[in-house]
Amino acid sequence: AKLQGPGSRIAYDPHIEQAAGHRFALMSRLGQDLRREALFLQFQPQVDMASGRVVGAEALLRWRTDEGLIPPSEFIPIAEKSSYIHAIGDLVLRQACQALDRLAAAGLAHLVLSINLSARQFEDPNLIPGLLETCAAAGIAPGRLEVEVTETTAMDNFAHVSQALSRYRDGGNTVAIDDFGTGFSSLEYVYQLPADRLKIDQVFVARLEHDERGRQLVRLILDLARSIDATVIAEGVETAAQAEWLTAHGCHIGQGWLYARPMPLEALIDFCGAAGAAA
Ligand code: C2E
Ligand code: MG
Ligand code: MG
Ligand code: MG
């Protein structure tokens, strides 16, 4: 249980010990499974909502265990508390490069693949040089691999992170700000962010159908994006009504269950063929 403010007392709570034990067990298994490559990427298409054409995909990490899939929301925070997050970053990059190779072989070299970076990965001064080097060595052309960072990551250590992101962009690549609108960043920082795309967080998309206030907020985000020359992508698009509203208001790219859930790479390739044929 959490501290409840004045009047609450800290007592022995078996749940805390259980949770800590659970985290510890997960962490040691994570270390083993990292070596066994039980962690793998799935891919969720990013769609031009008007035509249905797939323009990119986001790589989302999965961890398969004997008890089923453990979601990243559960193991990324644990990995961030150890150095495993760096090993995870390496694994994601390696698998993303393989995926880009496969996509090119399938005639889909125009798709931009994005990977998520966590704040702690930026502690490594070699993060961006390493990314650029790995891509170059793998023959991945600049612009094919996008990185996503949350607003909170960028704000964490703004000078350092924005310099690193600028360096990545100087290499001809794009940067997306993830979960945009949920991070309490000041407008001044938003203005200075080296970003090509803002990903509107799914909580805002979900509110589009609720009320006028919800829609007004998304209009505001779209205006903001325009003013900093960033394009927008809507996360968590689940209904046709949301997609319609978004395209009518200048947000053209969507990612969400309306189009597809995250899927294996070969399924993405099939999906692109089907979407291309439909368009
Ligand atoms: P994110 O980067 O914001 O990813 C979007 C999340 O929304 C994904 O959850 C995706 O499966 C989910 N999603 C997509 N469309 C819909 C929809 O229409 N409705 C709903 N309700 N959800 C939708 P997922 O895959 O569980 O990932 C959660 C978070 O874990 C990601 O949020 C990202 O912050 C983190 N993550 C995932 N992969 C990686 C990775 O390789 N590295 C790091 N550092 N973080 C990762
Ligand atoms: Mg993301
Ligand atoms: Mg997001
Ligand atoms: Mg998120």
Query: What is the strand content?
Result: 15-25%
Would you report the number of β strands? 9
What letter string, H or E per element, gives the SSE order? HEEEHHEHEHHEHEHHEHEH
Strand line-up in the sheet with most strands: 1-2-4-5-6-7-8-9
Mean pLDDT: 91
Q: Helix/strand-derived class? A: alpha/beta
Helix content: 40-55%
Using only C-alpha atoms, the radius of gyration works out to 20 Å
Q: What ligand molecules are bound, each kind once?
A: ligand C2E, magnesium ion
Tally of alpha and pi helices: 11
List the uncertain runs: 1-5
Q: Describe the main β-sheet briefly.
A: 8 strands, mixed, barrel
The general outline is: globular
- Cα distance, first to last residue? 52 Å
Fold and architecture overview:
The chain is 48% helix and 19% strand. It contains 11 helices and 9 strands. An 8-stranded mixed barrel has the order 1-2-4-5-6-7-8-9, surrounded by 6 helices. The protein binds ligand C2E and magnesium ion (3 copies). One magnesium ion (MG) is lined by residues 178-179, 199, 201, 235. Residues 23-276 form the EAL domain. It comes from Nitrogeniibacter mangrovi.
